[in-house]
Amino acid sequence: MPRHDHASLFIPPALTRRRLLGGALAAAAVGATPGASVFAQAAYPTRPVSLLVPFPPGSATDAIARALAPQVSKALGQQLVVENRPGAAGTMATGIVAQSKTPDGYQIAIAPATVFKVPHMQKVPYEPLKDLTYIMGFSGYTFALVVPESSPWKTFQEFIAYAKANPGKINVGTSGAASTGHAATMRLAQRTGADLNHIPFKGGSEVLQAFIGGHINAVLDGGWAQVEKQGKGRVLLAFTAKRMPRLPDVPTAIELGIQHVARSPIGLVGPKGMDPAVVKTIHDAFKGALSDPTYRRYLETYDLEDAYLSGADWYALAQKMWVDERKILEELDMLPK
Question: What are the TM regions of this chain, as residue ranges (predicted)?
């Protein structure tokens, strides 16, 4: 696990001890900033703030980011500009922020769970637990195996029976190599003995387009709810700890002997070394927007979790996932040799 360094504190003469302690204590309640420096900063924000989204336009993550943007902009008094940075299994946006040398709060990102998986599989120029400020967690994806409504498979057992009888002919799409869906697909193949072809895409919207277009046989991802509600997809298996309340007849992988829960939280991150007062401003603006009706409607549309976490709790979850994801990858023989 990455080592945690603690940067020295720079306290400008104009910043009194009382003001410093007050700002630091307030920020500690909401944000976790490994190696953070506390420094004086002019009123924030004084210009638009960029929110980097890790998946393409039209994805579930993009939809909720744009739903939150108006209320966050109102709270900040400056526009929150949503910018899509898809790629690298959803880690492109976080990677940009992690390598930033200007932790002024004007560029933040949504980090998906793959941030704690991809660095175990390939070399990246940052360390997730060291090079980021964890501002807050706010949601999570529900992963499931979905097939076209027009397909002949009514149950998971029928799907697997066909896959085993026709090795190499079933294409399962996910939102990228090294993604949460990729690991779940590998686990599915490992536990059932089915020969499944993993087809990676750049994000949820692209894999769903391929699914609707008939280019893949199934999707194992977190943005499937919309196609199911439109009558274009049939959910065969949920990779959740318990059955989904909305779809109580869909079994979980665990029930069928596949010991795999695809936990996939998302949250806000910024560069390391952010001013705690700025972290608190961003946190409070986003937390206040979580009650917005449009945002909550999108949570329901995409079957996303309502899962607020303070910055400290988000960082604690990140630490746990860093360990858990490596263990899963080891079990699936997905780590580099």
Answer: none
Look at residue 12 and tell me if it is in a domain.
no
Q: What is the pLDDT of residue 109?
A: 98
What is the pLDDT at residue 9? 27
Please check whether residue 14 is in contact with residue 40, taking contact to mean a CB–CB distance below 8 angstroms: yes
Phi and psi at residue 164, to the nearest 5°? -75, -30
pTM reported for the whole predicted model: 0.83
- On whether the CB atoms of residues 266 and 252 are closer than 8 A, the answer is no
State pLDDT tens for residues 176-232: 888 999 999 999 999 999 999 999 998 888 999 999 999 999 999 998 998 999 999
Spatial contact of 30 and 284, defined as CB atoms under 8 Å apart: yes
Map tokens 């936990």 to a residue. 263
In this structure, the number of other CB atoms found within 10 A of the CB of residue 42 comes to 7
Q: Is residue 51 within 8 Å of 96, Cβ to Cβ? A: no
For the chain, how many structural domains are there in total?
2
Task: Give the residue from 238, 256, 274 where a domain finishes.
Answer: 256
Cα 314 to Cα 34, 61, 192: the distances in Å are: 12, 18, 34
